[in-house]
Structure formats: C-alpha cells, structure tokens
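Protocol step 4 of 5: obtain the predicted structure for the target chain.
Materials: sequence only (see below). No template structures provided, no constraints applied. The aim of this step is simply to have a reference model before the mutagenesis design in step 5. Sequence pasted as it appears in the construct record:
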Amino acid sequence: MLQVFENEFVELHFDAYQSWLTETWKTTSDYLSDAQFLELQQIKLLKIMELSPECVLVDSKHFFMMIAPHIQDWFNEYVLPQYVELGVQKIAFVRSLDLFSQTLLEETISRRQKHSFEIEYFDELYQAQSWLMPEMVIV
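Step 4 output (structure tokens):
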C-alpha cells in the first residue's frame, strides 16, 4: 500500500491491486476543527480523482470529532455526489470507539437518501476489508 497523504489527524493509503483508498483517522481527530475537516475531505476527493479507487475504506475507529449539522449537510451535498461522479462503488466504515461520534457519522451518511454506491459499517478492520473484496481472503 502506498501512503498518499498524512497529517496529524489522518493518513490516506492507496492499494492499486485492490483499487481502494484507505482513510485512517488518528486519536488526535478530537482536536480537528470544522475548517480542517472540510479541507481534509477536499484533499481526499483530489486523491480519489487522481487515483480512481473503486472502494473507500474509512477506518474511523479513532475518529472523535463531533460533526456539526452544517458540516453534515456540506458532506452530503458536496462530497458524496463527487464519490458517485468519480466512480466509487463501495464505502466501508470501521466504527468509531466513541459512540456519539459514530452516531453523528452514521447520521451524516444517512442524510443522503439515495446512494448509487454501497455503504456498510463494521466493528473491525478485517470485516470491512472482507466486505470490500469478498473473493479475497484477508488474514
């Protein structure tokens, strides 16, 4: 896997063989501002545009940011439609250890009534990986 971005909050890796982009949130995400979150989503979209992954794996186990309603709306109006345009077919989320953050994350995604890609939530990374590529055995 090739690391394509990293800062104090998140890492992005691309696996060309499996055609997926992995977004791994760090424990420092609770210090993330709204503006920083928006900027990171735009960076991720640029990487999706550049690398054309079929799947996105979001490891939000350590995602602790409280997503405000206006950020949820922006994500649904701006980010998710671009996933569709850029050819993303599946998004797998590894659930946050913080129940409130996870609830807000799922609420953000569920605000978009219709997706032309599949979205699932998992407790463990290996479960998300298995769902993204069911024909592959993940060890």
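Step 4 remarks: The chain is about 40% helix and 25% strand. Residues 32 and 65 are 6 Å apart (CA to CA).
Proceed to step 5.
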